[in-house]
Predict the structure.
Amino acid sequence: MKIRDTSRQQQSITMDSDSERKPRVPTKVTSRPFTWGPSDGLQAGGFDRAPTDELRLLFRKGAASFRLSKATRPWIKAQLQLYGIPFTNSDGQPELMETLKKAFRAGKCNAPTPAVEAAERALRLKYKAAVENHHELVQQWKDKKFLELKGGPTEEAEFDVDRFLAKYFLNGLHGQPDRAKTKEPVALDLSIDCHDATLKKAIQAIPGLAFHASDYLSMSVVGWDTELDRGIEREFAKLSSGQKSGDASLFTPTHEATYDFNRFLKKYFRVDVNGVATETQNEKKPSTPVTLQYLPSSGVSLVSEFAAKVPSFCVKHLGLMLYSGGMVLGWDVAKVEAEVARIEEKCRLRVEKDLREQEQRAAEDKAQREEEVRSIYRPHHEYVARKKSEVAKPADLAIDQLVGSYVVRWEGEEGAQYSDQVNNQLTLDVFPAKSAHGVTASFFFGVIEGAMLLALSEREVALLRDSEKKKDPYYEESQANLYVSGVGYGRDDNEGADAINLGYGISTGHGSADGPACPSTLTDKKRRVGDVADPWGVQAAMAKRQKQAVRVKKEEEEDEDKDEQVGSKPLVKVKKEEGEDAKPLAEIDTQPSRVYFQFAYNVVNGYPDVDDENEHVGYLDFDMSSSSGDGVFHVPRWFGRQSFSIFKIDDEPSGDKQPLDWFEFGGRRWGSGW
C-alpha cells in the first residue's frame, strides 16, 4: 500500500490566532492516512487498530449485535489501513467487511505490514521534531511577554525565573554570574521559601547569589552576598515606617521580629541574637516592654531560644484568644508584668462585652424563634378555642373526625427541629373518606413527602392499601401477568375476603404449601421456579414471597385456634423496637383514640423509598377533643422509630393540597416497585 507523505502539510503544532496565548503542546502529527500521538499511538481515521482477538469475535458465527454495529464503513476501512491490507476505496461497507474477513482468515491481521510499521516510525520522528519546534516557539513567546511586563521584579520572577535571573544577575539566559549588572539587592513581594521551588533552587545554584525571605510577610530580598545586608536593612526600615506593615503602631514590632529577629532585638533591646549588648557602657538598657501579636510558630521559637540564652530577658506569654501567639518582652520584669496585666484586663473587658452582646443576640433570637413557633401553632389554638364548647365526653374516635388540616411537630433526625422553620412548616392534610376502611392524606415532613392511609385498625389499613393499589391503571395488567406466570397473588374472587392482605405486609391465599397452582393460559402447565422462561427471576421471587405469606398465615391460624380454646382474644405480637417489649394487639385495640396508618413517600429530591415489605407504618393517639395527637412512625431505612405530634388547625384540608395516588410511590418510574 502506498503511503503518501504530506511533508508540507501543517503540523499539529497549533499557535492560537491570538498571539497573547502560549503555544499549545502538539498532541499528534499526521501523514495520511495515519496520525500518531503519545496518548493515542497510531490511528487511522481516529480509530485504533483492533486486536486480533477482537476481530475473531467479530467474525465468528453468531457474533454479538454490538460488535456488528461497531463495524461501520469508516471503522473497517481504518482496520484495513492499520494492518496494511489493500482494498478498493470506492467499495461499500459489505464489500470492505468481506475484504477484512478474508484477510483475517488468511492470517494477515496477526501483525501490521512492514510498510505500516515504517510509517509509524516516521511519524514518531516527526512528532519529536514537532516537540522541539514547539519548545522554540514557547521561548520566543516568553521573550516577547517578558518585555511587556509592567509589574517590576516581582511579576518578572513569578512569570519566568530564568529570565528574571538573566535580567538582573547573569550575562544572558542560562549564562554566567555578572556582579556588575545589578549591584543593589532586588526586593520581591513574595516569599521565596513558599514560592515555586524552582526560584529558590535557581538562586542557590548561582555562586555568590543569596536571598533573605519572610514567609509570614511574603517579603524577600535577592542580591549578591556582599551587598545583601544593605537590601535587608532597607526593607526593615520600610517596615519600621509603616510602608509595609500598614498600622505601624499595632503590628510593626511583630512584622519586624518575623522579618529579621536580629535587627528587631537591636532596635528595641540593644542586643543581638547572641545576647551581646550593642549599647555603650554609659547607656542603659531600654525598659519599655514590647508586645508581639499573632506571632507565627517560627517567631515564637526564635524568642524562646533567645530567652534561654539570656536569663535576664523577661518573656511573658499572653495566651488569650484575642492575642493568639502573643507575648510581652522586656528587660524590666515589673513593667512587663504590668503590661501583661493591662492587656489581659483590656481583653477581659472586651470578652465580657462580646459575651453580653452574644447573650443579647441569643435572647433576641430566642424571642423571635418563640414567636415563629407561636405563629405556627396559633391556628391550632384558635381551632381548639372555636371547638371548645363542642368537646364531647370521652368516646371512641370516628374515622371522619380525622378529616382536616394539621401542622406537625417532628424534631427529626438529630433534633433538626424541622417544624419550627416557618418557611419549611410540616403539614398533614386528611381528605374525606372514599372508602369504608379509612381515609387518605397527603403529608410534608421536611425531608420526606408523600401519601398516608389512616384507619382504626391494622387490618383496615391493609384493606385500604389493597383498594388503593387497584386504582393503578396497570393493576389489572400486573395481576394478569402474575396469573399467566402461574403465581397467584392478591384476591381470588372465589375465595372471599380471607384471601385479601391481612395486617402490615402479610399477604394470604388458600392453596398448598407450595402456593396455588394456577394453570398457564398458554401451556396448561405450572411454571416452575427457575424456568428458563423467567430469566430475570421475577416469577421466582413472587413465588417465594407467596410461599412465605402462606406459611405466616398458617402460623397465625394456629395461634388463633389456641386462643379460641381458652376463650381469649388473639394476642398477635406486633414488631417491637430494640429495647421495647412487644405489646399484644389486644392491648393496643383497647386504645379508643388510636389511629393506625401506613405511608409511602419520596425523598424531597424526588427519589422514592419503595416499601416492598410494608414497614412504613405507625400510629397516633388522639386527645379527647380529637384536635391533636401524639404518635410514632417507622422508616427503617433512614430514621427507625420516630416520635411526632400533630395539631389540627381546620376541619377541611388545605385548599392547595390534593390527594396523592398511592401507586405513584411504587417506584415504577424508577424501574422498580410492586
